Amino acid sequence: MTYRLSGACHCGTIGLELALPRPPEEEVVGACQCSFCRKHNARTVSDPRASARLVVHDPAELQRYRFGLSASEVVLCRRCGVYVAMLMREGDKAWTTINIDALDERARFTGLAEPRDFSGEALEGRRERRKARWTPTELVGWPEEGG
Hints:
Strand content: 35-45%
Structural class: mainly beta
Radius of gyration: 14 Å
């Protein structure tokens, strides 16, 4: 069975669809310990057996932020400020870890968030781990990399 969830930033500029292979109550919830995630009190979910879609309705309002090793980018709405996902791209492929609080049914993720600290990880190892563990994602209405 597939569990389909949807969500968006507060103003609806960045839409989100997530299809999980198990109920949200059984998903492993992560709590990244990087300074960005800690400042946002983010709880995230990623599952390589899941699939996600990020839909940008107004590309001018998409804010992307990189820090640290720049292995990925934070997806934020410029208009309302909501942190939606962490995104990693390689060629025409994309993977995300989704901020649970951007989902409409966020209360269904009842597992305690497991602290995760990857600060000692090298760039190549980080990218390979994310490809193996993050959710394959389709980007819709997405501006080009430089846009």
